Every structure is written in structure tokens, then in C-alpha cells.
Backbone:
């Protein structure tokens, strides 16, 4: 391995990590602002102009809080829980192609940390691993409510993972590859997968709402029934980690949806723009478009949160098992038939 | 049972049709409702910088009034303290000296006049009881403080500023 | 470098596998099992079998072990309500464990005689090659198992539907 390669990747990883943390940080601010605007309020506006320093204030508050570890808890696992939640949230960004290959001083550099040929499955695996953070934290708290909530989270995630995996299979029938870079390259200009897989996208989106534990599927942190949820024994920055991991998860889910179904960094008229902007600015503009798509999805996450009330637990399971899974299977069958017809006639 | 009025409305419980069972149309409707609020003007008033106008019958902090010549109107009769349901008002009366005629209108005046703002319920009965039209609850909101003793307002805070000679 | 990584990960997997057995708390046992599976995933990656690695990651670590943990957390595992093990069960346990040990020792001996296996195609583990292999020579068993899994899934959905009918 040559040193340039290592340095290049190190810089890329650092930049991506910083960007995802900053976006997650400002998602907390955006969440409160969006909630306020949707409810005819102003939202936080005291810390800095328009309250843009609010995330910093929140962070300082979280760090300054007293840290309490329940005496009857399993200390080691109690510490592992939030760390695992954070880790699983962060490593998902490794296989995302953030833009076209960029040329700096005549040197071509890919804007992707690694292009493994099972990238899609890797993301799927990381997402499915995320539930361990919640389960371990909930169990180690040694509290009935935390445990119930952790078990809810686990069963919810397993149920919706099935439908999510099935919707991805239909997508794979269209793309014929598991590498995220190839999937994005296939969607050049306006050939976005959402046009070919509208039902698959809908199922995937509903499932990613459930996987990130966002409203209307935020049952693991139900104030009314569970006194707060799996993190009720947590305080200080350990609680902060759990809450923060949720926002990073939301960012990663938005990224994956934009990559798989909305063409990633592709946009109509990109070939024309490439001739104007040149090999350095055109990929950056593509990344900019990509981030706009991601922000649109994050906004949609928040918009839905302040619109739809929480599902009841049996409704959640009904939706997952009786509606989404049969729909996803039907989607696979229809996609398969259409592809067979198109290829043969 | 026969209903006496015809106001009773019998609700029919129909099973949901396909569009309703799909959730999606209703969700889209809900999303449209919330996004329409996104562009509405917010009702918030940024309090310390902006203040709302008080209504005409607003009762706020008390003030002890002066007459046209700038003399205090209060004669320390104690009717306000007597009428106060929260027993928030106390006072000590004294006789006016000859050289104090320009300060107090009546021959008897209040040396000490204290209202405990933590007890006061802003009912306005002192205002009604006062025969000299000396006390009115026409001030702003009583400001917050950290110590209980700071909520006992003496004459220094209650008596309105003397009229300026123009 | 590859060999040293292998020995490191192999030591870890043996250590975690032993911890699965020796851990007193069943939950800890399951967590160690998850770690063991994780080291297996690393082994698959070292063998250039990326697809197997990821599937092991998703299916075993992500789904099956979650279910294990799920069930164990729901059980009330105390020292008091642990069932008494009779002498017969103990004997059966020793015999079964001994059989497994003998099988392992035998297979280890068999392996040591064989020549080290070299793959004709080192990229067989990549998705494309694996897919061609599965849909070529192994078409029938692969399709049969997929039908089995599909029927299990449809059955699971049907089970939820049937209950509704009974309740009216």
C-alpha cells in the first residue's frame, strides 16, 4: 500500500465523518425549527442569530449533566450500549459514493471510501446491527421499561428488515449489481430507479422509517407507555449518544434512499454541466445536488414526524407482516415478469 | 329510547374502503395540512423585546397615585388592607406635619405601605375599596426575582413618580 | 501480513467461543457468540468470500442472534428457578459432549493427512462468480431451498391472517 493512497483515504474518511456529524448535529436544530414552523411557532432563536448555536448549547448541556450509572445495572454493557449504537450509525457511510471521480492537479480521486462489490448488503448489515446498541443498553439498565422497549425495538427492526430486504431484491433485479457505485452510475441523468421501482421505493422508505425508530414508528421511545424508552436510565452524554445516533441513522437512511432510488449525485443535464464546469467543479456540483437530495429526505423525515401520530404496537406488526411483506413479494414477482418480458421480446 | 329532541345523530360505522385502508391518501392529506402551516405566519411574540398590548381591564402592578399638585392621595385609612382577600397589604399611618403639606394631601398619611406581591392575587378589590382614588392596578407585570423578601414592595416601588413641572 | 492477521483473528474466535461456554450469564454467552460470529465474518473476508461474509453478518449476527437475545431477555433466568439436573441428564450430556469431541479430533486428524486445498479460482467468493456457480451446477438444490424459504415466509404471513378469521 502506498502512502498517498492511505493519506487520500484518511482525508476522505475524516471529511465524511465530520460532515455526517455536523449534519446530525444540525438535524437536531432543524428538527426543532421544522417542528416549530409546522406548528406556527418560531423555534429556538436565542443562541446566536436565528438560534444557530443551539446544537452547541445542547452539546455543552449534555456534557455538563451529572452522569448516573444505576447501581444494579450491568456496568460494562451499560457503557457498551451507547457506543455500539453510535458506531453502527457511523460506519454505514463508508460505502456511499459521494460524487463522481474528482480530478485534483491531474490526479483522479474517487469520492468514495471503498467500493466493495457487496456494498448494498454491507449497508443492510450495518443497519441490522444497529439494534444491538438499543438491546444491550435496554437490558443492561436492569429496568423493566427499558427492557420492554428494547424488545420492542428488536422485534420492530427484525420485522421491517424482512420487507426492506425484499424491496432491495426487486431493486437488484433492475440493477444487476450490489455495488453502490455501479448502481449510481446506472442512474445517470434522469434514469432514477424510483421511476422503475415506485412501489419498491415506498416499501423501502416505510421500512427505513421503522429501522431508524422515527415517528410514526418511534415505539421504542414511547413516553406514554414506557416512561421514555430504552434510554430511560441513561443520563449525560451517554443519553446524548443514543439521541445523536438516531440522527446519524436518519442521515444515513436518507443517503441510502437518495443513492438507491434518486440517482445519488446524478441530475438531469449533468453532461452539459460537466462541459461547463470542468473536471474539478462538476463532481463537486454533483455532490452538492446529492446533499440537496439528502436534506430533502431529512426534511421529509421531520415533516412526517410532526404529521402522523405514533402507531399502536399491533398496528405496527400488522403493517409490517400483513401489508409490507406481501406487497414486497408481489413487487418482486411483477418486476421479475416485466424484466423477463422486456428481455425476451 | 326515543330521543326528546332530534339532535341525536346516529353514526354509521362503515368498514374502511380500499383507499382508506391503504393509509396513503389520508397521509398525503395530513402532510398537505402540516406543510400549509409551514408557510403561515407564526403567532409567537418574542417577549422581552416585543410586548403585547394589555387589554383595557388588565390588572397589573399597583401604583399609589398623586393628585394634581403632586401630593400623595393615600390617607392610610386601611380600607384596602381590610378588603384585601389575600391579606397582602399592610401600612403604618402617621400625622402630617405642617411643613409636609406639599407632600401629602390629607392630614393623615401612610409612612409605610407594603404589598406582598407573592400574596396578591390581583383581584382589584383594593382599587374598588379606596375612597381617595389613591391605588390603581395599572402597572405592568410584576417582575420575577430570586428572593422572597424582594417581593414585598414598599412605597419606593409603589408610589408613582412626581409630576414633572412643565 | 495475511497469516498473522489470520492467527490473530483465529485466536480471538477460539477465545470468544470458549467464553460462550464459560460465561455464567446466558446473555453474556449470547453476546460472546455474536463476537465469535463477527470473527467468522473477518475470516470470510480474509478468504476473499465477501458475499458469504456479508450474509453471515446480516443473517447470523443481524437476525438470528437478535432473536436469541430477544428470547433470553424475555426469560426470567434466575438461579432459583433453574431446573434440577438429574444424574441421567448429566450422563447424557457427558456422552454427547464426548461424541462431539471425538468427531472433532477425528476430523482434525483427517484434515492433517490431506494436502492443503488450493482453490482453482480465488475469486469464487465474489458475488458474480458465486451467483454463476449457484445458478449453474447447483441450480436445482438452490431453487428448492429458495422455494422452501419462500413457503416458510408465506406461511408466517398466513399464520397471522388465520388468527383474525377465528376471532370473527
Residues:
Amino acid at each position: 500500500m502506498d502512502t498517498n493512497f492511505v493519506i487520500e483515504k484518511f482525508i476522505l474518511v475524516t471529511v465524511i465523518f465530520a460532515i455526517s456529524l455536523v449534519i446530525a448535529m444540525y438535524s437536531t436544530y432543524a428538527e426543532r425549527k421544522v417542528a416549530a414552523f409546522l406548528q406556527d411557532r418560531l423555534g429556538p432563536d436565542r443562541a446566536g442569530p436565528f438560534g444557530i448555536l443551539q446544537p452547541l448549547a445542547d452539546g455543552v448541556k449534555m456534557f455538563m449533566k451529572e452522569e448516573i450509572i444505576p447501581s444494579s445495572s450491568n456496568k460494562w454493557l451499560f457503557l457498551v450500549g451507547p457506543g455500539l449504537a453510535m458506531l453502527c450509525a457511523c460506519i454505514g457511510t463508508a460505502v456511499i459514493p459521494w460524487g463522481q471521480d474528482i480530478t485534483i492537479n491531474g490526479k483522479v480521486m474517487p469520492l468514495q471510501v471503498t467500493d466493495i462489490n457487496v456494498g448494498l448488503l454491507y449497508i443492510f448489515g450495518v443497519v441490522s446491527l444497529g439494534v444491538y446498541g438499543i438491546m444491550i443498553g435496554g437490558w443492561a439498565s436492569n429496568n423493566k421499561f427499558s427492557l420492554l422497549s428494547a424488545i420492542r425495538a428488536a422485534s420492530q427492526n427484525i420485522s421491517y428488515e424482512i420487507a426492506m430486504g425484499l424491496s432491495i431484491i426487486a431493486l437488484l433485479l433492475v440493477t444487476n449489481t450490489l455495488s453502490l457505485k455501479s448502481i449510481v452510475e446506472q442512474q445517470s441523468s434522469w434514469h432514477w430507479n424510483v421511476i422503475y421501482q415506485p412501489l419498491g421505493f415506498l416499501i423501502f422508505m416505510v421500512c427505513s422509517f421503522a429501522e431508524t425508530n422515527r415517528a410514526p414508528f418511534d415505539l421504542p421511545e414511547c413516553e406514554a407507555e414506557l416512561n421514555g424508552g430504552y434510554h430511560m436510565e441513561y443520563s449525560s452524554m451517554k443519553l446524548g449518544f443514543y439521541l445523536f445516533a438516531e440522527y446519524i441513522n436518519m442521515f444515513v437512511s436518507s443517503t441510502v434512499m437518495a443513492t438507491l432510488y434518486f440517482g445519488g449525485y446524478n441530475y438531469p443535464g449533468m453532461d452539459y454541466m460537466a462541459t461547463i464546469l470542468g473536471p474539478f467543479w462538476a463532481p463537486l456540483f454533483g455532490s452538492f445536488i446529492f446533499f440537496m437530495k439528502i436534506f430533502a429526505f431529512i426534511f421529509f423525515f421531520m415533516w412526517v414526524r410532526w404529521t402522523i401520530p405514533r402507531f399502536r404496537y399491533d398496528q405496527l406488526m400488522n403493517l409490517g407482516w400483513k401489508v409490507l411483506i406481501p406487497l414486497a413479494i408481489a413487487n418482486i414477482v411483477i418486476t421479475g415478469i416485466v424484466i423477463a418480458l422486456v428481455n425476451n421480446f | 329510547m326515543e330521543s326528546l329532541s332530534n339532535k341525536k345523530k346516529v353514526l354509521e360505522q362503515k368498514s374502511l374502503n380500499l383507499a382508506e385502508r391503504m393509509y396513503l391518501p389520508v397521509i398525503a392529506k395530513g402532510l398537505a395540512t402540516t406543510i400549509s402551516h409551514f408557510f403561515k405566519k407564526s403567532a409567537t411574540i418574542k417577549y422581552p423585546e416585543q410586548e403585547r398590548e394589555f387589554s383595557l381591564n388588565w390588572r397589573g402592578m399597583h401604583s399609589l397615585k398623586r393628585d394634581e399638585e403632586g401630593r400623595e392621595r393615600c390617607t392610610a385609612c386601611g380600607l384596602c388592607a381590610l378588603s384585601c382577600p389575600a391579606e397582602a397589604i399592610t401600612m403604618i399611618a402617621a400625622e402630617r406635619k405642617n411643613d409636609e403639606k406639599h407632600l401629602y394631601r390629607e392630614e393623615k398619611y401612610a409612612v409605610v405601605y407594603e404589598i406582598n406581591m407573592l400574596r396578591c392575587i390581583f383581584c382589584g378589590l383594593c382599587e374598588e375599596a379606596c375612597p381617595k382614588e389613591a391605588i390603581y392596578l395599572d402597572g405592568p407585570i410584576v417582575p420575577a426575582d430570586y428572593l422572597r423578601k424582594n417581593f414585598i414592595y414598599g412605597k419606593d416601588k409603589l408610589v408613582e413618580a412626581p409630576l414633572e413641572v412643565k | 501480513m495475511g497469516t498473522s492477521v489470520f492467527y490473530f483473528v483465529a485466536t480471538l474466535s477460539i477465545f470468544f467461543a470458549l467464553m460462550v461456554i464459560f460465561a455464567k450469564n446466558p446473555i453474556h454467552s449470547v453476546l460472546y457468540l455474536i463476537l465469535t460470529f463477527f470473527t467468522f465474518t473477518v475470516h470470510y473476508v480474509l478468504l476473499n468470500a465477501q458475499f458469504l461474509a456479508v450474509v453471515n453478518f446480516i443473517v447470523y449476527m443481524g437476525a438470528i442472534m437478535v432473536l436469541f437475545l430477544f428470547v433470553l431477555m424475555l426469560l426470567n433466568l434466575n438461579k432459583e428457578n433453574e431446573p434440577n439436573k438429574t444424574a441421567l441428564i448429566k450422563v447424557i450430556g457427558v456422552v454427547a459432549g464426548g461424541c462431539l469431541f471425538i468427531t472433532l479430533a477425528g476430523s482434525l486428524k483427517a484434515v492433517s493427512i490431506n494436502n492443503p486445498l488450493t482453490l482453482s479460482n480465488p475469486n469464487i467468493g465474489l458475488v458474480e462468480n458465486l451467483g454463476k456457480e449457484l445458478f449453474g451446477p447447483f441450480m436445482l438444490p438452490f431453487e428448492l431451498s429458495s422455494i422452501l424459504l419462500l413457503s416458510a415466509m408465506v406461511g408466517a404471513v398466513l399464520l397471522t391472517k388465520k388468527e383474525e378469521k377465528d376471532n370473527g
Summary: Chain C has a mean pLDDT of 80. Chain C touches chain A at residues 27, 31, 34, 50-51, 53-55, 57-58, 61-63, 66-67, 69-70, 73-74, 126-128, 150, 153-154, 156-157, 160-161 (CB under 8 Å). The longest helix of chain C spans residues 139-166.
